Task: structure prediction
Amino acid sequence: MMIVLPLSHRLAARGSIEIKDLAGERYVQRSSCEFNDMVDVVFDERGVDCETVYRSDRDDWVLAMIASGFGFGFFPNYSIEHAGVVAIPLVAPEFWREVNLTTVKGRPYSAAVGALVHEAMRSSWPEGTALAVRNHSPSDG
Result:
């Protein structure tokens, strides 16, 4: 997970950000973020107070508000698409998630699901090749 800031923010040139660095900052919240409750607890435990100034379930709106200087955001690394922001890793503590795509071998699925599986298998992932591709043997077809 990354801290997203406007390009002109005082922390924008950092290589990493700790929660304590965000004390007193304004927060632009992704209301559908699965980490919201956990992040609130961690901030409270560390005595870091941030004012939530905007909430939206639309990531594009949240990114636009951040780019406009309303505050910082908390985003998964691969969902940040806006030229007006910078994404910096949050450390101490680090938040992360693992996402899996699972199918049942031999079970037919729709063309849309087939396209998704195909793209997932041919994509370049941070940890290397998709597990299904690594485990595929020529005898599997």
Notes: The two ends are 37 Å apart (CA to CA). DSSP finds four helices and six strands in the chain. The chain has two domains: 2-91, 98-141. Residues 131 and 137 are 12 Å apart (CA to CA).
